[in-house]
Design brief:
This protein has 132 residues and is an all-alpha fold. It has one domain (10-108). The chain is 98% helix and 0% strand. The protein contains 2 helices and no strands. It has helices spanning 2-110, 112-131. The radius of gyration is 54 Å and the shape is rod-shaped. 0% of the residues are buried.
Length: 132
């Protein structure tokens, strides 16, 4: 019976040794995997730093561009106000010309008979003068 205990102890020792060997192999494989994960994460971290720097630069440029657009837009406000005033001036000028034209037409209508008589008298006077 003692031999059986020794054999059982020997089997236990061999099984324990095999278990330890496989555990060591598993831990080494896990260590390699962890090293790969660590390398990947470090690469991602560096890329994120680059992305962060580029994003910051892009944001700064966007803010500068927005400020420039606002500045130039405010400068154009005066131009648009001037164009509006110019349009009103042209409209007023056209109305004035229309009124003057209406007045001339009315005056011409009133004096048309007198002008016709003056032309007739002028023609008659020229005919008499030519005959002399």
């Amino acid at each position: 019976m003692i031999i059986m205990l020794y054999i059982a102890a020997l089997i236990f020792a061999v099984a324990f040794a095999v278990l330890v060997v496989y555990l060591v192999k598993t831990l080494k494989a896990s260590q390699r995997t962890m090293n790969n994960v660590t390398g990947t994460l470090e690469g991602i971290e560096k890329q994120m730093e680059g992305i962060t720097a580029e994003t910051t630069n892009l944001l700064n440029k966007t803010n500068k561009l927005a400020d420039d657009i606002n500045y130039k837009s405010s400068k154009l406000d005066g131009v648009f106000d001037g164009a509006k005033d110019l349009g009103q001036t042209v409209k007023d000028f056209n109305e004035s010309l229309s009124q003057i034209s209406d007045n001339i037409t009315k005056a011409a209508s009133k004096n048309q008979d007198k002008a016709t008589q003056a032309v007739k008298w002028g023609t008659a006077v020229l005919n008499l003068w030519k005959k002399k």
